[in-house]
Specification:
Blueprint lengths: L2 H19 L7 E7 L8 H7 L2 E7 L4 E6 L4 H5 L5 E6 L5 E2 L30 H5 L2 H5 L9 E6 L19 E2 L9 H4 L5 H10 L15 E6 L9 H13 L4 E4 L1 E2 L6 E2 L3 H19 L3 E5 L12 E2 L11 E2 L4 E2 L9 E6 L18 E4 L16 E5 L8 E4 L6 E6 L2 H19 L12 H10 L9 H5 L32 H4 L5
Length: 507
């Protein structure tokens, strides 16, 4: 069984085991309550209580309440209120993508910028940074400490020596459960995935370990995934609302949300959840947050979905026919920068999803099967990792106290933070502290700069495409295909990101 399929099956098994463990227990379930209007009425709390529930969090800006209730009648009671569009239980799982075996750039802004070096202990192992010309970009800027990136993931290691210089403790938070908790113990990473993505974004150029894409910017850990790596809808909504209200510049999102891999707009069970999440993402974007997301690791053509065999991922999944009204969240939400993965040979990674109109750009995610060479002996991406979490391909930097740990992983989860880091560099370089947006470039502007400065990449020739034959779509078994030309195609979008080009002003 291909490794990307095997690991996806493990996620489904883990979800099933969790649900079986709690079968028959009358514990409170989480619900997303979606109002038709983008507002919560004054009696919203009373309505929840009268239906037998408790308000966990209320987001009046988007018309969403997160609630707890142990009553089986809770949803039916609320749906009698004509102001409510939908009520969905979030008792099923969502999951991170598992790791797998024309606007000109314009003129410079006035945010504080300083160069950075790429001479840390393991910089020589960072083929991914060389692929996107990050070291050359760092000679111009390592980013501005005025720019804040939120990593919506499993938290980050608050004690990692390579992250501590850039962690924004005041803006880090756990949203697991649906309500913000800023205690460091709450958002500390007990999984490893979030620490890895955080390091790719903003590991400091401090002589230790590795150097991130934007080593001078600030990063906030926004924990929306739990210990097992599951991402519940109430946490996703909370995370994006936190990013918007706290004026983040960028968020990275290396997961898929909802109990269903593909979320169908006309399904009453899924509708309230995907609409609530879409509203939260749109709210963050309206506050100037550039949202970047991984496309997924199932070799699927997201522009032509026909079948979903995974969902609901409580297990076992049920085979269902799907169409283009079914989407993966957050990568297919409007305005989100969707990212596919590449390997060291600058080809799409064997596992990476793709799709016309879904793929904006590509970035290094690793490929341990089709793309390995002397520069990338195992094909994977190296980044920061918690010392206490297991990692098969582990490196340690003994020059630090405590010893800093690093891990090789691969996936679109690893590609997306490269783009989030680049977005931070772009904002650092061109942001204006006197602007009405407090130094921000609008998300559309950031996306345009990243896309228009990417290195165009053509679809593979027939001989290269044949190498992907052993890795058909996980969802429907279809062979991988590539549509489009060098300027834009389903595998690479506008191309592989180029950090140097993106932060070099046009003459």
């Amino acid at each position: 069984m291909p490794s990307h399929v095997f690991r996806r099956v493990l996620v489904a098994i883990a979800a099933a085991s969790f649900m079986l463990a709690f079968a028959g227990v009358a514990s409170a379930a989480k619900y997303v309550v979606l109002y038709k209007a983008k507002g919560v009425p004054a009696d919203g709390g009373a309505v929840i209580r009268n239906a037998g529930g408790t308000v966990v969090a209320s987001y009046a800006q988007i018309g969403v309440i997160i609630a707890d209730s142990s009553l089986s009648s809770f949803r039916a009671t609320l749906m009698k209120d004509s102001r409510i569009e939908g009520v969905s239980s979030t008792a099923r799982f969502a999951s991170q993508f598992p790791d797998v075996e024309s606007a000109s750039s314009g003129s410079e802004g006035d945010l504080p910028n300083a160069p950075a070096t790429d001479a840390d202990t393991f910089s020589g192992l960072q083929w991914d940074m060389r692929q996107i010309q990050a070291p050359e970009a760092h000679a111009i800027t390592g980013g501005s400490p005025s720019v804040l990136v939120g990593d919506l993931d499993t938290g980050l290691d608050k004690d990692h020596p390579d992250l501590i210089p850039n962690i924004d403790f005041a803006n880090s938070v756990s949203c697991v459960g649906g309500a913000p908790d800023q205690s460091p113990a709450a958002w500390d990473d007990d999984n490893g995935h979030g620490t890895h993505t955080a390091g790719t974004i903003a590991a400091a150029a401090n002589g230790v370990g590795i150097v991130g894409v934007a080593p001078n910017v600030k990063i906030a850990g926004v924990k929306v995934g739990d210990t097992a790596g599951f991402f519940f809808p109430e946490a996703i909504v909370c995370g994006f609302m936190w990013a918007g209200t706290h004026r983040f510049d960028v968020t990275n999102n290396s997961y898929f949300a909802d109990p269903f891999l593909f979320n169908c707009h006309n399904d009453p069970v899924q509708q309230a959840i995907w609409k609530a999440e879409s509203r939260a993402i749109a709210y963050a974007q309206s506050q100037g947050v550039t949202v970047v997301a991984a496309e997924g690791n199932f070799s699927d053509d997201l522009a032509h979905p026909t079948q979903d065999i995974l969902s609901p991922d409580t297990g076992p999944g049920e085979t269902r026919t799907i169409h283009n009204n079914c989407v993966v969240i957050p990568t297919e939400v409007a305005g989100v920068i969707g990212v596919t993965a590449t390997g060291v040979l600058r080809q799409k990674s064997f596992y990476s999803n793709y799709g016309v109109s879904v793929t904006e750009v590509a970035a290094p995610g690793g490929d341990s099967i089709l793309q390995r060479n002397a520069e990338a002996v195992n094909g994977r991406v190296l980044s920061t990792y918690p010392a206490e979490q297991p990692c098969t391909r582990r490196l340690e930097d003994p020059t630090t106290t405590p010893t800093s740990v690093y891990c090789y992983l691969q996936g679109t989860s690893m590609a997306s933070p490269h783009v989030a880091g680049l977005a931070a560099l772009v904002i650092s370089r061109y942001g204006d502290s006197s602007s009405p947006q407090n130094g921000k470039l609008r998300p559309g502007r950031v996306a345009a700069i990243i896309q228009q400065t990417a290195d165009p990449q053509p679809c593979p020739d027939d001989a290269t495409l044949a190498l992907y034959a052993p890795f058909p779509s996980f969802s429907n078994g279809a062979a991988q295909t590539c549509q489009g030309g060098t300027g834009y195609n389903s595998w690479y979008g506008k191309g592989i990101i180029n950090a140097l080009s993106a932060i070099t002003p046009n003459p």
